[in-house]
């Protein structure tokens, strides 16, 4: 087998194992007049791995199993969905989307469908102070691909990812 064929085979295998997309990230803060817009890449692997990397890798949102790591401006925030109810629902929803499974039901998860789009809103019912107040994920219901993810923060701030 020629080296060219071996490289082509490896590329095809990687493409089957990992789904990569491009992403645009918009960070909005009520206190700042202009939104910050950056671009990057998304890597998705079954059963429950997502890495959204923007701004040349400086900002990252990583779900690796039950562990979530968010890096913003060099500052890391880590949580585990087994200990954090908001992220438990988020993990269950993302895992279902990645694996083309039905969205799990929960008191904190609301699913609406319009045409080929499914909008999944996760809003925690507890009063615990969190970095995010809710997540809104828009998914193409036919292909089970993510279109948008909006993470709403306190004080009308949000981070929104648009996947292409």
What does this structure look like?
The structure is a single chain. The protein is of the alpha+beta class and 164 residues long. It has helices at 3-17, 85-98, and strands at residues 18-28, 36-45, 49-54, 59-64, 67-72, 75-80, 109-114, 117-122, 132-140, 145-153, 158-163. Strands 6-5-4-3-2-1-11-10-9-8-7 form an 11-stranded antiparallel sheet. Strand 10 and strand 11 form a beta hairpin. The chain is globular.
SSE diagram, text form:
Blueprint: H1 3-17, E1 18-28, E2 36-45, E3 49-54, E4 59-64, E5 67-72, E6 75-80, H2 85-98, E7 109-114, E8 117-122, E9 132-140, E10 145-153, E11 158-163
Antiparallel strand pairs: 1-2, 1-11, 2-3, 3-4, 4-5, 5-6, 7-8, 8-9, 9-10, 10-11
